[in-house]
Amino acid sequence: MNNLKQLKFWNFGGMYYFYFMVWALIFAFLPFWLNNVAELSTSVAGLVFSAMAVTALILEPIYGVVQDKLGLKKYLFGFVVLCLLFIGPFVQYAFIPLLEINAIFGAIIGGAYLSLCLNGGVGVVEAYIERSTRASNYEYGHVRLFGSLAGGTAAFVGGIMFVRNPYSIFWACTVSAVILGVLLWTLRVKNTENEPNASAEKEEETPVTKENIMNVFKNRSFWGFCLMMIGIATMFDVFDQQFPNYFASFFDDASRGELVFSRIASVQVFMEAGFMILAPWFINKIGAKNGLILAGIVLFIRVLGSAFFTEIWMLAFWRLLAAVEMPLMLVSIMKYITGVFDVRLSATVYMLGFNFAKQVGITVFSYVMGLLYASIGFQNGYVALSVFILIFVIAGALIMRSESYYTKNERDIAAA
């Protein structure tokens, strides 16, 4: 039985590893491919990413409700894997012809397809594995660290592959999808594995109704959680969008700065994996809401520090702090969702409260910060960004209730 339990842990870890290998390869090298291979202008390349974001906004509410109704059934995850399988053929044989027919049309179709796998599909992957690990009595953070390891691996091998053959990146995604599909097919998760969880299992097996879903929107903590996600997850991504260029600007040779930054980013990813091991224990001690607040404080310090302390070694330190922030955020998100909301709706809350809110925030603040960088410079822009972070984190913290507020009876009443 212990051997079987260990095997299942590696199964979960492998699923995270090979999914986020695809994620890291695409997001790291798609911009270079669009520019150097597809020869798209910056505006049309930007349209690809806009199409990915808009498609995700449409998919998230649908994916969330469907996955919650499916529970531990694999059908929606399987659909995401099927989309991943065809990334290699799509990019090699379809994407360029579509762009040649009409650049805007091809960009929209390409972005929408990639969103099925990535921006939209990631919510399915995260929600399903979190629910499955919870049913199997594993800590989410201990399994999620494999995703960080995948990011580090992709950064290491992806550059070599892209230089030799730009299309090899996308075929590597297809190979990863094959392995991911095998791992998903062999996975067996049953709610009845552990007697102590019988009450939770019974709750999971009760059908999800429209009233259950509407109760989520009546819960003030949901709206506070959305604000918190904009303050942390959105601002994390917005800050990282231009930080590599900011970092490289402090070097006489920009290419040297890019190389140093890539090495720092690789170190950060592997440090993140190490902190992911400790994060579940730490969040259990301080509470998920406090974990989110702490992640927001770390991000605030990173952004403000990058504005005022600009020696290269200090900028590297601010980047490495992300290795602490990311585990705090990811583990706290999952623990807060399952501690505050009806566990049957964990996918819906995750996809709407986290992914949807994050995408909306990125759409707005990417544009706002772009204007600020152009008008007042990076350093003053980072001061403004730190203020935005503080406002959203404080507002979210004031509206959210801690998970200790919600007793078991109160959650049952809310779900009724």
TrEMBL record:
Its main location: membrane. It is found in: Cell inner membrane. Keywords: Cell inner membrane, Cell membrane, Membrane, Transmembrane, Transmembrane helix, Transport. It comes from the Bacteria. It holds the Pfam family LacY_symp. It is a multi-pass membrane protein. This is Oligosaccharide MFS transporter. It comes from Gracilibacillus xinjiangensis.
